[in-house]
Here is the input.
Amino acid sequence: MDRLSELVLASASPRRLDLLRQIGIVPAAVDPAEIDETPVKDELPAHYARRIASAKLDAVAPRHPGCFVLAADTVVACGRRILPKAEDAATARKCLGLLSGRRHHVLGGIAVAAPDGRRILRLVDTAVIFKRLAEAELAAYLDGGEWHGKAGGYAVQGRAAVFVRAISGSYSNVVGLSLYDVEAMLNGLGFRS
Here is the structure.
């Protein structure tokens, strides 16, 4: 295989893999970074998204010399607060309660390394407005379990789509990876799919 078409995805996210396939990019390998993703005290969401994407790239790129490496992180931010990935229903309920009836931001940190060592780091900001959630619809969503492992406790590509009144910016960023930006970054570094 031509090295200019070999991409390693530094992510365990099946959504990111699906998104890349949607635009005809099939990574040669998937190699999750497995880094500490704990926010630093008082860290702002935009800084966190860029820092984690860059740290993932730093962890994985040395393991794949001569390849393009793509790393990303998605942060749901409510004001200055970084919402966690919901690992239990109580966390999901708390996140969705904060988002109910409000505008929030989904920040996508994207970091790409080229085989020659050049790197690009970009932050994508998508504003999302949720309708006010009634207790019955919140309970039904939580019962479905779709929230598990999702930043901010929701998956916009699933049943939570009915919560969204408006989106300003990249829809695929909210799913997990801004395809517009990924393609532009990869093309800028000479990647050929």
Summary: The helical segments are 14-22, 45-60, 89-99, 135-144, 171-175, 179-188. The CA atoms of residues 66 and 117 lie 9 Å apart.
